[in-house]
């Protein structure tokens, strides 16, 4: 007997049974109730975090929610400052905001939250004078807020690895920064 025949046989079995309609409503009610119960378990967060590192933000979230946060030394050593204002937000909404701002990804498992940096992406391009089309040799490209940078080659080409949320600054003698 193949799978299709077995499926048709099972469908006929349930069609021949007279299952009262209220039974379906009870089952649906139970399923919906369990979904709401899962959402009710997630804590709400009300925190004002001003000029804090990610390490401090996660420590404060852990204290506020009772959840355990696990993250790498790369996040601990990130000294950039962030400001967040969470007013009665779910933990996952607060984490989503932090993840977007800081280029992170997270996973909630029971009362544990694991956080990691998104992988760096290679950004490359060519800098030229907008009027003449000449390459800008030796222009400086830096990641905003860091000391990481590179310079253009003889053809105005550059390549740099950055996190998805980072911005680049371009500078060249005699030109406005952009």
Would you mind describing this structure in some detail?
By secondary structure, the chain is α+β, with helices and mostly antiparallel strands. The chain folds into 2 domains: 42-117, 3-Layer(bab) Sandwich (Phage tail protein beta-alpha-beta fold), CATH 3.55.50; 121-171, no CATH class. The protein is 35% helix and 32% strand. It has helices at 3-16, 21-41, 54-65, 73-76, 91-102, and strands at 44-52, 68-71, 82-90, 104-109, 112-117, 121-126, 140-143, 149-151, 157-162, 168-171. The strands form 4 sheets. The chain has a 3-stranded mixed sheet with strand order 2-5-4. It has a 3-stranded antiparallel sheet with strand order 8-7-10, with no helix packed on it. Strands 1-3 form a two-stranded antiparallel ribbon. The radius of gyration is 27 Å and the shape is elongated.
List keywords for this structure.
2 domains, 10 strands, alpha+beta, three-stranded antiparallel beta sheet, single chain, 178 residues, elongated, 5 helices, Phage tail protein beta-alpha-beta fold
Could you give a quick summary of the protein structure above?
It contains five helices and ten strands. The protein is of the alpha+beta class.
């Amino acid at each position: 007997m193949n799978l299709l025949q077995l499926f048709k046989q099972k469908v006929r079995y349930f069609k021949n049974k007279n299952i009262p309609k209220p039974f379906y409503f009870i089952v649906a009610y139970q399923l919906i109730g369990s979904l709401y119960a899962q959402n009710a378990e997630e804590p709400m967060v009300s925190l004002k975090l001003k000029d804090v590192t990610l390490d401090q933000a996660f420590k404060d979230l852990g204290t506020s929610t009772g959840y355990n946060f696990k993250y790498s030394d790369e996040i601990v050593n990130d000294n950039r400052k962030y400001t967040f204002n969470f007013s009665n937000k779910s933990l996952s909404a607060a984490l989503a905001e932090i993840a977007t701002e800081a280029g992170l990804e997270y996973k909630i498992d029971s009362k544990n939250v694991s956080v990691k940096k998104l992988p760096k992406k290679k950004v490359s391009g060519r800098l030229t004078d907008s009027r003449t089309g000449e390459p800008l040799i030796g222009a400086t490209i830096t990641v905003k807020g860091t000391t990481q940078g590179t310079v253009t080659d003889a053809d105005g080409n550059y390549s740099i690895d950055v996190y998805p949320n980072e911005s680049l600054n371009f500078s060249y003698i005699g030109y406005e920064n952009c």
